[in-house]
Specification:
alpha+beta, two-stranded antiparallel ribbon, 2 helices, 2 strands, 35% helix
Length: 55
């Protein structure tokens, strides 16, 4: 199976001798809510007793 990485050209520079391409990888991410980020941070950084109070 072949893995394909997609890139987007963000800049092209041509000085007559060399062509330079600046690429940005197309990365698809899933949306995550601010609430989920807070929950993850609380679970990683607080002790169980404090977690109960916050949640």
């Amino acid at each position: 199976m072949v893995e394909i990485n997609e890139f987007r050209v963000s800049q092209i520079v041509d000085n007559g001798q060399v062509v330079q391409l600046s690429l940005v990888e197309n990365v698809q991410t899933e949306p995550i809510s601010q609430k989920q980020l807070i929950k993850e941070s609380v679970s990683q950084n607080l002790d169980p007793e404090t977690q109960k109070q916050v949640m």
